[in-house]
């Protein structure tokens, strides 16, 4: 009995099944690579936000008497460096605070981040919190999905921001 006629097309079917399995595995690998790139980007943004917030916190610790100037400058609109340039001339503590806060705010804006400084929610010691946000998150406290934290200070799991207490 000749089985070659019953085997016609079986090799082609096996090849098609193998190609289908290969295509599914390649798609899975592409999805895995995409998630890895997203996670890496998120990590880079968090590191950059932490560095911005830490830079502001260190400047505030050095010049604690000008906390009001730091808060008002960070919370306001900054488009250019103020005068005098504290790198080139001596500045008072208030001028230094405005200059430092302006530098930090401009640095955050250049990398697509927003920064804000508000009273920490539900804290008795009147400490300030620095909010650094990116993507669709606002550096604010509120009830909306785009806010960094809720009014009670609870971090929103869907937000892309960093909160640092400054003292």
Automatic annotation (TrEMBL):
Highest taxon, organism lineage: Bacteria
Membrane-crossing residue ranges in chain numbering: 12-32
InterPro entries listed in its UniProt record: Pilus_4_PilV, Tt1218-like_dom
Alphabetical keyword list: Membrane, Transmembrane, Transmembrane helix
Presence of the UniProt keyword Transferase in the record: no
Chain ranges of the Type IV pilin Tt1218-like domain: 31-101
Keyword set includes Endoplasmic reticulum: no
Name of protein: Type IV pilin Tt1218-like domain-containing protein
């Amino acid at each position: 009995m000749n089985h070659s006629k019953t085997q016609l097309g079986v090799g082609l079917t096996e090849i098609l099944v193998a190609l289908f399995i290969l295509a599914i595995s390649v798609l899975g690998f592409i999805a895995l690579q995409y998630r890895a790139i997203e996670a890496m980007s998120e990590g880079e943004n968090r590191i950059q936000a932490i560095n911005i917030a830490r830079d502001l916190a260190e400047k505030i610790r050095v010049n604690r008497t000008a906390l009001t100037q730091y808060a008002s400058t960070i919370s306001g609109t900054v488009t250019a460096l103020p005068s005098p340039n504290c790198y080139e001339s001596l500045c008072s503590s208030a001028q230094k605070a405005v200059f430092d806060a302006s530098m930090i705010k401009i640095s955050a804006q250049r990398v697509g981040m927003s920064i804000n400084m508000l009273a920490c929610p539900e804290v008795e010691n009147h400490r300030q919190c620095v909010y650094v946000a990116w993507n669709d998150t606002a550096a604010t406290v509120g009830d909306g999905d785009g806010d960094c934290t809720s009014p009670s200070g609870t971090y929103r799991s869907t937000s892309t921001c960093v909160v640092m207490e400054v003292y």
